Amino acid sequence: MMSRRTLLYGGVAAGALAAGAWVNHRRLGGALEPGPALAPGTDPQRFWQLEFETPSGARLATKALQGRPLVLNFWATWCPPCVKEMPELDRFVQQYASAGWQVLGLAIDQKAPVQQFLQRHPVSFPTALAGPDGLALVRELGNPAGGLPFTVVFSAAGEVVQRKLGATDLAELSRWAGAMG
Protein backbone atom coordinates (compact mmCIF):
# COMPACT_ATOMS: atom_id res chain seq x y z
CA MET A 1 0.00 0.00 0.00
CA MET A 2 1.35 3.40 -0.94
CA SER A 3 1.81 6.05 1.69
CA ARG A 4 0.33 9.49 1.34
CA ARG A 5 3.82 10.90 1.02
CA THR A 6 4.62 8.59 -1.91
CA LEU A 7 1.37 9.52 -3.62
CA LEU A 8 2.00 13.22 -3.00
CA TYR A 9 5.54 13.04 -4.41
CA GLY A 10 4.30 11.05 -7.39
CA GLY A 11 1.56 13.60 -8.05
CA VAL A 12 4.00 16.50 -7.78
CA ALA A 13 6.44 14.76 -10.14
CA ALA A 14 3.69 14.02 -12.68
CA GLY A 15 2.46 17.61 -12.47
CA ALA A 16 5.96 18.99 -12.95
CA LEU A 17 6.53 16.74 -15.96
CA ALA A 18 3.21 17.75 -17.50
CA ALA A 19 3.93 21.44 -16.89
CA GLY A 20 7.38 21.05 -18.44
CA ALA A 21 5.88 19.34 -21.47
CA TRP A 22 3.33 22.15 -21.89
CA VAL A 23 5.97 24.91 -21.56
CA ASN A 24 8.28 23.14 -23.99
CA HIS A 25 5.40 22.49 -26.38
CA ARG A 26 4.50 26.20 -26.35
CA ARG A 27 8.14 27.26 -26.74
CA LEU A 28 8.78 24.95 -29.69
CA GLY A 29 5.38 25.37 -31.31
CA GLY A 30 4.70 21.67 -30.82
CA ALA A 31 7.41 20.39 -33.12
CA LEU A 32 11.05 19.54 -33.23
CA GLU A 33 12.98 19.81 -36.42
CA PRO A 34 13.02 16.65 -38.51
CA GLY A 35 16.22 14.80 -38.98
CA PRO A 36 18.90 12.88 -37.24
CA ALA A 37 19.96 15.44 -34.60
CA LEU A 38 20.18 13.44 -31.39
CA ALA A 39 21.60 14.20 -27.99
CA PRO A 40 25.38 14.66 -28.06
CA GLY A 41 27.19 11.35 -27.75
CA THR A 42 24.08 9.32 -28.57
CA ASP A 43 24.53 6.20 -30.65
CA PRO A 44 21.41 6.11 -32.86
CA GLN A 45 21.71 2.33 -33.09
CA ARG A 46 21.44 1.92 -29.30
CA PHE A 47 17.65 1.98 -29.55
CA TRP A 48 17.75 -1.22 -31.62
CA GLN A 49 19.54 -3.02 -28.78
CA LEU A 50 16.92 -2.26 -26.10
CA GLU A 51 14.31 -4.54 -24.62
CA PHE A 52 11.16 -3.54 -22.72
CA GLU A 53 8.52 -5.31 -20.68
CA THR A 54 5.02 -5.30 -22.14
CA PRO A 55 1.90 -4.74 -20.00
CA SER A 56 1.26 -8.51 -20.17
CA GLY A 57 4.72 -9.23 -18.74
CA ALA A 58 6.32 -10.45 -21.99
CA ARG A 59 9.56 -8.94 -23.29
CA LEU A 60 9.70 -6.86 -26.47
CA ALA A 61 13.08 -6.54 -28.18
CA THR A 62 13.33 -3.52 -30.44
CA LYS A 63 15.61 -5.44 -32.82
CA ALA A 64 12.52 -7.46 -33.78
CA LEU A 65 11.13 -4.24 -35.28
CA GLN A 66 14.15 -3.47 -37.46
CA GLY A 67 13.96 -3.47 -41.24
CA ARG A 68 10.63 -1.66 -41.57
CA PRO A 69 9.68 1.97 -40.92
CA LEU A 70 8.68 2.55 -37.31
CA VAL A 71 6.67 5.25 -35.55
CA LEU A 72 7.86 5.25 -31.94
CA ASN A 73 5.52 7.10 -29.62
CA PHE A 74 6.31 7.97 -26.00
CA TRP A 75 3.16 8.50 -23.96
CA ALA A 76 1.62 8.24 -20.49
CA THR A 77 -1.87 7.53 -19.19
CA TRP A 78 -1.89 10.80 -17.23
CA CYS A 79 -1.02 12.90 -20.31
CA PRO A 80 -4.21 14.20 -22.04
CA PRO A 81 -2.56 14.89 -25.45
CA CYS A 82 -1.04 11.40 -25.34
CA VAL A 83 -4.41 9.81 -24.71
CA LYS A 84 -5.99 11.91 -27.47
CA GLU A 85 -3.49 10.76 -30.11
CA MET A 86 -3.69 7.03 -29.36
CA PRO A 87 -6.65 6.44 -31.73
CA GLU A 88 -4.80 8.40 -34.43
CA LEU A 89 -1.76 6.15 -34.09
CA ASP A 90 -4.03 3.12 -34.20
CA ARG A 91 -5.74 4.33 -37.39
CA PHE A 92 -2.34 5.01 -38.94
CA VAL A 93 -1.00 1.51 -38.30
CA GLN A 94 -4.22 -0.07 -39.55
CA GLN A 95 -4.01 1.93 -42.80
CA TYR A 96 -0.25 1.66 -43.36
CA ALA A 97 0.70 -1.79 -42.02
CA SER A 98 0.29 -3.27 -45.49
CA ALA A 99 2.95 -0.79 -46.68
CA GLY A 100 5.33 -2.06 -44.01
CA TRP A 101 4.74 0.59 -41.36
CA GLN A 102 4.66 -0.27 -37.69
CA VAL A 103 3.98 1.64 -34.47
CA LEU A 104 5.39 1.06 -31.01
CA GLY A 105 4.01 2.85 -27.98
CA LEU A 106 6.44 3.25 -25.08
CA ALA A 107 4.64 4.22 -21.89
CA ILE A 108 6.44 6.47 -19.44
CA ASP A 109 4.20 5.03 -16.79
CA GLN A 110 3.73 2.13 -14.42
CA LYS A 111 2.36 -1.25 -15.42
CA ALA A 112 -1.05 -1.17 -13.67
CA PRO A 113 -2.26 2.16 -15.12
CA VAL A 114 -1.12 1.11 -18.61
CA GLN A 115 -2.92 -2.23 -18.31
CA GLN A 116 -6.09 -0.49 -17.16
CA PHE A 117 -5.87 2.09 -19.95
CA LEU A 118 -5.36 -0.55 -22.66
CA GLN A 119 -8.29 -2.60 -21.35
CA ARG A 120 -10.56 0.45 -21.77
CA HIS A 121 -8.88 1.71 -24.99
CA PRO A 122 -7.29 -1.21 -26.86
CA VAL A 123 -4.90 -0.48 -29.73
CA SER A 124 -3.68 -2.75 -32.50
CA PHE A 125 -0.01 -1.84 -32.12
CA PRO A 126 2.42 -3.12 -29.49
CA THR A 127 2.89 -1.14 -26.31
CA ALA A 128 5.72 -1.57 -23.86
CA LEU A 129 6.73 -0.03 -20.55
CA ALA A 130 9.64 2.38 -20.62
CA GLY A 131 8.79 3.52 -17.10
CA PRO A 132 10.32 6.63 -15.57
CA ASP A 133 13.75 5.68 -16.99
CA GLY A 134 12.22 6.09 -20.44
CA LEU A 135 12.68 9.85 -20.09
CA ALA A 136 16.42 9.34 -20.51
CA LEU A 137 15.70 7.64 -23.84
CA VAL A 138 13.34 10.48 -24.81
CA ARG A 139 16.19 12.93 -24.19
CA GLU A 140 18.68 10.79 -26.12
CA LEU A 141 16.34 10.74 -29.10
CA GLY A 142 16.28 14.53 -29.33
CA ASN A 143 13.77 15.85 -26.77
CA PRO A 144 15.97 17.50 -24.11
CA ALA A 145 13.02 18.68 -21.99
CA GLY A 146 11.54 15.18 -21.83
CA GLY A 147 8.03 16.42 -22.68
CA LEU A 148 5.20 14.12 -23.76
CA PRO A 149 3.83 13.02 -26.10
CA PHE A 150 6.95 12.58 -28.19
CA THR A 151 7.08 10.76 -31.52
CA VAL A 152 10.16 9.55 -33.39
CA VAL A 153 10.01 8.08 -36.89
CA PHE A 154 12.69 5.60 -37.94
CA SER A 155 13.33 4.67 -41.56
CA ALA A 156 13.52 1.04 -42.64
CA ALA A 157 17.30 1.48 -42.33
CA GLY A 158 16.87 2.28 -38.64
CA GLU A 159 17.75 5.97 -38.82
CA VAL A 160 15.80 8.78 -37.17
CA VAL A 161 14.06 10.77 -39.92
CA GLN A 162 11.40 12.72 -38.00
CA ARG A 163 10.67 13.84 -34.45
CA LYS A 164 7.78 15.70 -32.90
CA LEU A 165 7.03 16.96 -29.43
CA GLY A 166 3.27 17.19 -28.95
CA ALA A 167 0.32 15.24 -30.24
CA THR A 168 0.28 14.02 -33.81
CA ASP A 169 -2.64 12.92 -35.94
CA LEU A 170 -3.41 10.65 -38.86
CA ALA A 171 -2.95 13.39 -41.46
CA GLU A 172 0.53 14.28 -40.19
CA LEU A 173 1.59 10.65 -39.84
CA SER A 174 0.34 10.00 -43.39
CA ARG A 175 2.41 12.95 -44.70
CA TRP A 176 5.51 11.55 -43.01
CA ALA A 177 4.85 8.09 -44.48
CA GLY A 178 4.28 9.61 -47.93
CA ALA A 179 7.51 11.60 -47.72
CA MET A 180 9.44 8.39 -47.10
CA GLY A 181 7.83 6.69 -50.10
Written description of the protein model:
The chain has five helices and seven strands. The strands form two sheets. Strands 5-4-3-6-7 form a five-stranded mixed beta sheet. It has a two-stranded antiparallel ribbon with strand order 1-2. A hairpin with a 5-residue loop joins β6 and β7 (160-165). The longest helix has 25 residues, at 4-28. By secondary structure, the chain is an alpha/beta fold. Helices cover 39% and strands 18% of the residues. The chain is globular.
Describe this structure in a few short sentences.
The chain has 181 residues and is of the alpha/beta class.
Helix-strand blueprint:
Layout: H1 4-28, E1 51-53, E2 59-61, E3 70-75, H2 80-96, E4 102-107, H3 111-120, E5 127-129, H4 134-140, E6 150-154, E7 160-165, H5 170-180
Parallel strand pairs: 3-4, 4-5
Antiparallel strand pairs: 1-2, 3-6, 6-7
Helix pairs in contact: 2-5
Count of extended strands:
7
Radius of gyration: 16 Å
Q: How many individual helices? A: 5
- Write down the secondary-structure element order: HEEEHEHEHEEH
The low-confidence parts are 5-29, 32-36
Report the average pLDDT across residues. 84
| Cα separation of the termini | 51 Å
| Widest β-sheet, arrangement of strands | 5-4-3-6-7
| Principal-axes shape call | globular
- What is the beta-strand fraction? 15-25%
Percent of residues in helices comes to 25-40%
Largest sheet: 5 strands, mixed
Structural class: alpha/beta
